[in-house]
Structures are given as C-alpha cells and as structure tokens.
What we know:
By secondary structure, the protein is of the alpha+beta class.
Amino acid sequence: MSGVWVFKNGVIRLVENPNQSGTDTHGRKKVMVYLPTGEVVSSYSTLEQILESLGWERYFGGGDTDLLQFHKRSSIDLISLPRDFTKFNSVYMYDIVVKNPNYFHVRDSH
C-alpha cells in the first residue's frame, strides 16, 4: 500500500494514491459490495441506508466539514469518509469492511 500520510484537525490518515481515487497501488479500480444483496455501493445515499440498517448513525460532533462520519452506540468505532464520493477509495472501503465483518467485500471492478 502506498500513499501520503495527512494530518488534519488532530487526525492522521493515509491517503492512498491521492491522484487516483478509488484505485489500488496497481491502478485497478475497486468497488465495495454489500454482501447480503450483492449490490455495489455506488453512492453515499445507498451506503448511508445500509449503515443505518446495521446500527450506524450519522455523527456530527467531529467538527470536520470535509468528512461524513458514522458511529455505533454499542462501540467506540467511528467511520470517517470524505464528503466527496469521488474520493471514496479502497482505504475507506476496507475501514468499513473491518468494522462490519460479513457484510461488505472489496473487489476489483470489472
């Protein structure tokens, strides 16, 4: 995995291939699939509906207007996503997969 570490508002994160959003290190575009339906997540409105059905809620306490954030009352986990869906890449996808095992999968797009 390659990219640039960005420190903003007290949070450090890896921005993978900042000039190629949604791609991995070999230039292949990635997609995230919601496993129960086989649906490719293609927008934040779709993703937000799915996350809400899994118990996630929008979190507005972060103060960073560049991010969409979700939290679960039953955990300390926080999902932070760029507000612009075109910047939604595999780093963010894998974060969602790890925090929601058995519900999502990241794969190469066809």
